[in-house]
Structures are given as C-alpha cells and as structure tokens.
C-alpha cells in the first residue's frame, strides 16, 4: 500500500488565493473548502487508499513560547481562518482522517505520520503532499518522498540534495543558517542558501563545523566572516534549528486509521451546504470501483 499525507493548511491557502469567492447561505466564505474537498476526491478517484490530512486548527503552537518572533495568526484574513474548522468537518464527513493540530503544527503531524508509516512493513511508499521545504527533512531514499501536486514534482532524497544542496537530515541546520521568513526566524547574517549548502554538505550539522575557518575542507566566499558570525550567534543557530526540526510525537493514530472506506451519512448535507450537489454521486462511483 501507499500512504498519502496531505498538507491541508497549504491546500487551504492555495485554493483561497486561487479561486473566486463563494459564499454559503450563512454568509461565510467557503471557496477554499470547496476547492480542497474536490481536490481530495480527485486523489481518491486516482486510486489513493490510505490518506490523512493535517491542518493547523490553531495558528499558534509550542514554538511561539520558544521564540518571540515565531509566526502567529496576526494578519491572517478572517474569511480564511474561519474555513479551517469548516474544512476539517467537511473532510471528516467524507471519511478522511483529519489530523487537526493545536499544540503542534500540521508539519509536525505529517512528520509524525511519515515516521509511523515508514516503519510499517506493509507500506510501499509514503507521499508527503506539500511543497513546504520543512518537510524535506522527512524524506528517506525513494520510500518517503515529497510531492508538489501543483507542479507535478516528486522529490526523493536525491531530489532534496539537488534542490537545496544538502541531504534531508541537514535541512533543519540549513534552515537555521539561512532562516525561514514564512516561520518568522531570520537565520544568521551573511549565511545564504549557497554558502550554507556548501558547508553543510561537508559537515552535515552545525556542531561539526570547525570554529576556525582555516580548518574548513570547503571553499566558501567570506569564510572568515561567516565563521565569526556562526561563533558569535551559535546559540541562536541552535534555537533556529530546534524551531525548524519537526516533531515525531504529534499524533497517536496509525496507518489503519487512514484507510478510506467511504463517506459518513452527513456527507450529503455537507455537499449541499458547500454547493457541491454532484460530489456525493462522484464519491459513490469511486467507492463502487474499490
């Protein structure tokens, strides 16, 4: 079997900004929910059997207590935020396992699920359906891969190295040096994507980088200045790496909980609310072909 883990937060954002507005009878924006629900049904139509969707039920997480500058819900459009709970309920009515995070983040849920699926001998491949670079740290060989559904790209461990210049295990260290504006931490001054990749390709992790640049086995422009910055801001770098490191204890469900067996009895009413009157017939047709 293959397991598909979908980044529901990313999908909701993507559809919100890509689709025209759609308002339900209660005056609530639902266009993104409609888009994600249709997208998930398409995945089922394509033969997906085991699927879980991770969402950020709340924007803040345990990382906000670790670093004051970490991302918050400030500035998030209310019409987008309100669709998270609607999406979770609509997907559940479809019979999809929803991993709704409060203390942790959706990325942590996907990492945890990938770890669980990865050690299950019945699983042939795990598909991390998200373009988020954070999840690249979870890629393992050809068995746990990252999928950018919008671009039609599948990235294995070699693909991660080709894109970022480092192996999956070094992604948190790479993010610590380069920073992650989406998550709200700046990285270290002067450490760009290329210089970070060159150094980490040789040393893998921050602790392994010699403090004396004359001992570096790689050639990097402004090595002395980079080494000085790393030495002076090493504690910050460790903190940023901790922020970028995904957790593997965010969920308690397993592969058998992610098998799709069909919608609940309230799926029809959800489709009516969302203006997707033909979707139940499509889902029923998919189910009959299983």
Automatic annotation (TrEMBL):
Transmembrane segments: none
A Pfam family hit: 5_3_exonuc_N
Protein name in the entry: Unannotated protein
CDD domains in the record: H3TH_53EXO, PIN_53EXO
Span of the signal peptide: none
Keyword Cell cycle appears in the UniProt entry: no
Entry keyword set: Hydrolase, Nuclease
Entry annotated with the keyword Cytoplasm: no
């Amino acid at each position: 079997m293959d397991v598909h883990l979908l980044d529901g937060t990313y999908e909701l954002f993507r559809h919100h900004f890509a689709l025209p507005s759609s308002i339900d009878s209660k005056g609530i924006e639902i266009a993104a929910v409609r888009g994600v629900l249709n997208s998930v049904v398409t995945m089922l139509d394509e033969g997906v059997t085991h699927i879980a969707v991770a969402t950020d039920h709340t924007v803040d997480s345990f990382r906000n207590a670790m670093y004051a500058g970490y991302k918050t819900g400030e500035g998030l459009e209310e019409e987008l935020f309100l669709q998270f709970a609607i999406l979770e309920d609509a997907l559940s009515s479809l019979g999809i396992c929803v991993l709704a995070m409060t203390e942790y983040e959706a990325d942590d849920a996907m990492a945890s699920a990938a770890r669980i699926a990865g050690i299950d001998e019945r699983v042939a491949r795990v598909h991390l359906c998200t373009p988020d670079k954070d999840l690249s740290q979870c890629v393992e060989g050809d068995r746990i891969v990252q999928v950018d559904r919008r671009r039609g790209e599948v990235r294995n461990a070699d693909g991660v190295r080709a894109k970022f210049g480092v192996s999956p295990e070094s992604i948190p260290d790479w993010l610590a040096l380069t920073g992650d504006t989406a998550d709200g931490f700046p990285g270290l001054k002067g450490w760009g994507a290329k210089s970070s990749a060159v150094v980490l390709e040789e040393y893998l992790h921050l602790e392994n980088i010699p403090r004396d640049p004359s001992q570096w086995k790689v050639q990097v422009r402004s090595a002395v200045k980079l080494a000085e910055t790393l030495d002076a801001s090493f504690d910050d770098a460790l903190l940023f790496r901790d922020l970028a490191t995904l957790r593997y204890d965010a969920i308690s469900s397993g592969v058998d909980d992610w098998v799709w067996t069909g919608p609940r009895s309230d799926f029809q009413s959800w489709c009516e609310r969302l203006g997707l009157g033909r979707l139940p017939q499509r889902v029923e047709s998919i189910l009959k072909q299983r």
